[in-house]
Amino acid sequence: MLSPAEYDAFAAAFTVLGRLHIQPADGQTRSDVIGLLHQWPLDSALSQYSSRGLELLAESAQRAENDDAIITDQDTLYGISASAKVPPYESVHCGQDRLVFDRQTLEVRQEYAKLALQAPKYNTEPDDHIGLELDFLGRCCIAALDGHDMAQELAVSFTKEHIVTWMPAMLAHASQEATTAWLRGVIALTQGALETWFTAIGLTYPHE
């Protein structure tokens, strides 16, 4: 059982990271995030990924990386408007036919429904996007804080049945393909958050 403070920290981290993976951050969002790096909710000493992620985001600000560079980087990495270097969907990594909207997508949809949630672009974009799965973990933590009986169990089972099966390997690949310090920082911070989460629930993060 995690403490309320731990749930709160993971909720904040996963919801922010989920949003940053779903849509490229504009200048104001990046400024807001960088301005709060010293308040990152998870202890960066618990994961080298986290400390590296914070360094990369600060480096992005020092380089004055602009919207065009970051949007292009995330677009080409995740295939927002064209083919992806690293598809951000679980089914593409885990499904036998490597398709979007495959069995894994529907399984994830069923998990969301256990908290009365559904993807914002239901039946239009796949439910198993990395950003949506991270956000769901955050929402499970929020529900646990609110006393939802099954929220912690749901977060742990979702991690074991979905997150661990594809996200660490996908993030390792994405970290090699991303070109901006900003996106590499977001990826590293995500790896760190997951490693810290895995440790908290008794799992070992698979290093590539």
Automatic annotation (TrEMBL):
Pfam annotation, one family: Nitrate_red_del
Keyword Metal-binding: no
Keyword entries, A-Z: Chaperone
Protein name: Molecular chaperone TorD family protein
Lineage of producing organism: Bacteria, Bacillati, Actinomycetota, Actinomycetes, Actinomycetales
